[in-house]
Every structure is written in C-alpha cells, then in structure tokens.
Amino acid sequence: MTDNAPAFAPDFAHDAAAVREATDRLLVSVGKLDDEAIGEPSLLPDWTRGHLLAHLARNADALVNLLTWARTGVRTPMYASAAARDADIAAGADRPLAAHLEDLRTSADRFDAAAAALTADRWPYEVEMRNGVIERAARLPFRRLAEAELHHIDLGVGYSVKQLPGSFLDAELDFLTTVKFAGHPQVPALELRAENGRRWHTGRAGGTAGSNGTEAAAGAAPVVVTGTPAALVGWLTGRSAGGGLTTEGGPLPAVPPL
Prior knowledge:
By secondary structure, the protein is of the alpha+beta class. The protein is 46% helix and 9% strand. The strands form two sheets. A four-stranded mixed β-sheet has the order 4-3-5-6. Strands 1-2 form a two-stranded antiparallel sheet. A hairpin with a 4-residue loop joins strand 3 (190-194) and strand 4 (199-202). It is globular.
C-alpha cells in the first residue's frame, strides 16, 4: 500500500469560509475589467467572460436551491431545466461590468446565508445535482469552491493553477481521484505522485482503485504521473495540457472533461 491520500472528506465550515475568500479574489480580478473586456472570449469554448460570470452567479443560486433542499427536505432542483439554465446564462452574458459585479456579490451573499443556515445534523442529507449525481450536503461548499477557483482561471485574467491555495489543491486532488475519476471507464489506471510526497490511485484499475484509495488490481499496472499539486490539478481539470508532469509506464493519458 503506497497511497497516503485519504478518501475525500469535506469540511463544511472550512469550505464555506474558503468560498468567501475565493469569491473575494474573483471580485478583485473582475473589478479590474471593463465593459469591453466582459464581451471578450473566455478560455472556455464559445463563452465570453460575460457568459462565465453569469454562470458563476446562477451556479451560486443553484447551490442555494440544493442547500435549501437539504435543510427543509423539500425537493428543490438546482435548475428548473437544462434549457432554463442555458437561457439564464445567455440572457445575463451581455450585461455591463457593474451589473455582473452586483450579481456576483448578491448571489454569493445568498450562498453564504444558505450555507450558514444548514445545521450539522443535515450535512449527511443527500440531494441530486443537475447531472443526476447524488451528493451529500456536506460537499456542497466544496463544489462551489471548485466552481469559483477553476472558473477564475477560465476568465483569462492572469489567475492560474499556480495561484490556487495549497489547501484547495490537496482537497481537489482527493476529490478528483476518490470521487470524480475513481473507477471511471474512460480513465486508465493511474498513480499520481505529488512532489510533496502524497500519492493517489484512480481510474479503472480493474475496479479496485477508487473510493478507498486501494491499490490497482494485479495485472493492471498504472501509469505513474508525477508533478506538483498545481500541475496535477491543471491537467486533471483540463486547465493545462500537462506541462511540468512526467510519466512512467506510458504517455500522459487524456482525461474526460469535468
């Protein structure tokens, strides 16, 4: 057993506080833009910065819906429908900078209030995300944190994976390897080695690499990928092509989009 990476264990209060800090950094970056820059392309295909900012605000409200569901037990979907989600993003994309900033601030306030209202006894409650994934309420602040941090990069304003907080990088690697890609049929058996000494197993691995970080099955030798936590997160989240990573046992594989 070489793994020293535990299964992803969210810390609701810590993650909620980290969301506020990430939002503050995001607002500083957005506040340096102007109306023209809002209409320029983001780093996401077919989306301007305005599309991305509208998505971030509506995602905050969508997660408020899930936090409300967890608190009350009354089913409250993230979005009314996929079409409604897309329409809201499109409708909000072309607003001026001031409107985007106000929307980001007020939607963040609503998320903070909803997170604060969810008592610890409701954290294990399960809700359904828009892609059908069943998620525990305890993980919802981390889900929002990942949205804020990764989409800050996608704005193309100079924020990069190298600037992500170390605590987020470690938690994101735990999440990606033990939740997102564990046993994923499109991800080959992988052993990730961070330069800080931590290791993770994920991917197919004969169905054994996954939620408890167990070793790959006999005969399913993993591709070993080594690099900094920032480089590993950049590659796994599609925010980099894998620069700074080295591999053993095969080339750097492609991973499916998040």
